[in-house]
Design goal:
Length: 262
């Protein structure tokens, strides 16, 4: 399938590993120019080695997007030399914040990571997309946005991020500039150096119990099972996907049809 994005320029945050790296690969496969960020030089180098056989059109950026003013400066720097047609807001983590009674400062830190950076980048790049009458923004939220599946602060902000994606998409559509925002909600995905890989090493019995009791397919998803859907939403074919919220989680979630015992 021709996604009709050859020559488009993309920015993928957190693109040096896991789902982000798989998305970078998909976009390179479709002949895009792809900038991607990470705080880790080691991860950027490791990713670059994997990308070399695919394309030379990738540009790693070592940057901490949670620092004050950094998203805006990044946007300014990129827009001084190119247009950003595609933005994939992929960064997100629990930051180890699991206490539902955690201090408000922890809530602020998690908001900045999951939503704040994305909102700042969106605000910075949307005017450029609008002036070009073409843009695609895909926000990577989580299956935890729909059900109680993780720490309270994490679930809260993933739910809010999904609501933001849906609401903001309508605003963009009403502006009639062909800027389409959507969101993808991955389920439990095993990634290199990620949470579940660590659990498999340190608490394999917990991982097996989780897979057995909480998942439909009894296995983890792979980044390569998420990235094709993201690439489609980044494409010219996604013009009718305004505010689309797409779970890609192997049928795990039970938020819609749920048996109720009498």
């Amino acid at each position: 399938m021709d996604l009709r994005i050859s020559g488009k320029t993309a920015l993928v945050t957190g693109g040096a590993s896991g789902i982000g790296l798989a998305i970078v690969k998909e976009l390179l496969d479709n002949d895009c120019n792809v900038y991607f960020t990470s705080r880790s030089s080691e991860r950027l180098e490791h990713a670059s080695q994997q990308l070399k056989p695919i394309s030379s059109k990738y540009f790693p950026l070592k940057i901490d997007l949670c620092e004050d003013g950094v998203p805006e400066q990044l946007a300014k720097d990129l827009l001084s030399k190119t247009s950003i047609d595609i933005l994939v807001n992929n960064i997100g983590d629990t930051l180890g914040i699991t206490d539902p009674y955690c201090p408000i400062e922890d809530w602020h830190r998690l908001f900045d990571l999951i939503m704040g950076v994305a909102i700042r980048l969106n605000n910075a790049f949307i005017p450029n997309m609008s002036s070009n009458h073409w843009g695609r923004i895909v926000n990577i939220t989580a299956g935890a946005a729909y059900e109680n599946s993780g720490p309270v602060p994490y679930c809260t902000f993933k739910a809010a991020f999904t609501a933001y994606s849906r609401s903001m998409a309508r605003v963009l559509a009403l502006e009639s500039n062909n800027v389409v925002m959507s969101s993808v909600l991955p389920g439990v995905v095993i990634t290199e150096n990620g949470h579940w890989q660590n659990v498999m090493k340190t608490r394999p019995e917990h991982a097996e119990k989780y897979l057995s009791e909480r998942t439909t397919l009894k296995r983890f998803g792979l980044p390569e099972e998420i990235s094709p859907i993201v690439a489609l939403l980044c494409s010219d074919l996604a013009s009718f996907c305004v505010g689309s919220v797409i779970p890609v989680e192997g049928g795990q979630a039970r938020h819609y049809f749920q048996r109720v015992e009498d």
